[in-house]
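Continuing the series of single-chain predictions for the mutant panel. This is the parent chain; the variants come on the following pages.
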Amino acid sequence: MYEIKRHIPNALTCGNLLCGILGINFLFQADNQTLAFDLTPSYLIGLALIFDWLDGFIARLLHVTSPIGKELDSLADMVTFGVLPAFMMLKLIESSCVSGTCTVGLFGFYKPYIAFGLAIFSAIRLAKFNVDTRQSDSFIGVPTPANAMVVASIPLILVYNPAFSKYIFSFNVLVFYCVIMSYLLVAELPLFALKFKNFTWKDNQIKYIFLILSVILLILLKFVAIPIIIFLYVGLSFISPPTPRGGA
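Parent structure:
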């Protein structure tokens, strides 16, 4: 029975990985001009987030955590929350190009390739997380799933909240996001984790405020709320930064 139990979290992690692989497959089948309306990769990221939460929860519940599970989780996250969002952003930037904005730029660099910075810095972020003992109760830098959520929300907003398209479906806005988020992924920025040792208001005030505001935003703005919630998360961490434990 133990042999079966210890493989359950890793099977869920592989579900996360499969979502990323399928998302990349669907992405390459999509035409650049219709990517904004192909929601399959976005839904797969959403499903992967559930797998990503469940694998850790089940591992702790069954007391079957292992070093290989930790490494496998990072590898799966790299594909689903690093590579897939980078390619999604590449396609979105290409679709947003007008008046030659996507032409080859300085030093022969194709401008939309700036999106690949999300994949590179996601890899650095995940590698740092695995060796940084300060990140047991909080995070240093924006977690890769948070970036994936923002990128996944963009096609959903374009379809279900088209009135907001002009604010996000812009070459300059998308490129600026890639630059800022690439930095935030690896920045020495303490961010709180939604882990509760108890449920008192005093010890979890910032977390409760974040959750309440997030629910309100989702009710009012639907998918538009997702990027707002992620940047609210960063902003609240600035206001009340957690104190990381241990050393790097």
